[in-house]
Inverse folding.
């Protein structure tokens, strides 16, 4: 494997093989598999899980890793193209990325959503510019429109819990958040659940429709897998029979990049906070999923996060096993 950028680049059988490997590495560790290998990790936006789980994954496989992020004591990093660097930044990403890559056998890159142009973010413009700067194997650790590592871990989590693939009902629900957040996780998640063959409903208030391109990609995955995709603002209809309620906030695509307009649109939507009544007509043992970090009492009630429905810690732990499988396939000789 030369690149782990998007689950859509793989056949379902290849994902199944990755998840089988993840499960094998979970029960039968291979502490020398990647001895002598180095993973470079470049974070252009904050992280807890991705940073820690990649480092832990490499260590558990016998390799090593190093982390570079702008808030470390490195020279200020300039990311804009065609700029005269007469400000604070002393180093351009165009030199920094190939230098960092030259120390590693593979590189993980976390970019961020500029959230200025929906078109640019849907095209993953910044991440694609970064990935052009080096020619070693690359892992997308979250870009403007994708988070394949999260999706692989979420797929494993549902497999671990025996959540049905065909006939399993997956609700991706918008949740309130005081700030406009990127589209990476909702885009990746709706595609992942469709590719897994589930009946996927995107539940969101008016104005927070996912972009057409995101829905189109998910529909294509559903057509291949035998799943289905729908989108609604009708909470009662969406939640009936759900096996999974996956919460995430995202910015309004109608007002993409316009924070005041987005803020006005989300005003009054504070009741989009997942709580026990949301599960009233769901499957009896329906689960709550979220990629974390999550704001307690805003996105989801404490009693859900602290109760038996929540699988958020399993999802986070599965990040490590899923990424061990990716690294194993990418770097094992
Ligand atoms: N879910 C996730 O990617 O978490 P971090 O932002 O902490 O890495």
């Amino acid at each position: 494997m030369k690149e782990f950028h998007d689950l859509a680049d793989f056949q379902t059988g290849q994902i199944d093989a990755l998840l089988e490997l993840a499960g094998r590495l979970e029960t039968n560790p291979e502490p020398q598999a990647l001895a002598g290998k180095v993973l470079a990790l470049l974070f252009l936006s904050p992280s807890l899980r991705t940073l820690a789980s990649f480092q832990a994954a490499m260590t558990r496989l016998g390799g090593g890793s190093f982390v570079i992020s702008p808030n470390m004591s490195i020279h200020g990093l300039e990311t804009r193209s065609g700029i005269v660097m007469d400000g604070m930044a002393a180093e351009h990403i165009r030199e920094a990325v190939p230098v960092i890559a030259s120390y590693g056998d593979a590189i993980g890159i976390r970019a961020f959503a500029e959230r200025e142009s929906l078109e640019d973010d849907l095209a993953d413009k910044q991440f694609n510019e970064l990935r052009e700067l080096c020619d070693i194997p690359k892992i997308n650790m979250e870009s403007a429109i994708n988070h394949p590592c999260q999706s692989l871990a979420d797929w494993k989590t549902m497999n671990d819990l025996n959540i049905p693939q065909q006939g399993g009902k997956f609700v991706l629900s918008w949740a309130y958040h005081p700030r406009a957040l990127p589209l990476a996780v909702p885009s990746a998640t709706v595609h992942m659940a469709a590719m897994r063959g589930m009946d996927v409903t995107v539940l969101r208030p008016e104005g927070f429709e996912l972009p057409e391109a995101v829905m189109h990609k998910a529909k294509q995955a559903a057509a291949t897998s035998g799943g289905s995709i729908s989108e609604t603002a009708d909470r009662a209809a969406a939640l009936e029979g759900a096996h999974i309620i996956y919460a995430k906030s995202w910015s309004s695509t109608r007002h993409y990049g316009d924070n005041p307009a987005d803020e006005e649109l989300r005003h009054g939507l504070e009741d989009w906070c997942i709580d026990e009544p949301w599960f009233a007509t769901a499957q009896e043992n329906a689960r709550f999923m979220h990629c974390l970090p999550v704001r307690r009492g805003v996105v989801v009630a404490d009693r859900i996060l602290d109760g038996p429905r929540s699988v958020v810690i399993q999802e986070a732990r599965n990040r490590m096993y899923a990424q061990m499988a990716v690294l194993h396939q990418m770097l094992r000789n």
About this structure: The longest strand covers residues 38-43. Residues 162-310 form a domain with the Rossmann fold fold (CATH 3.40.50.1370).
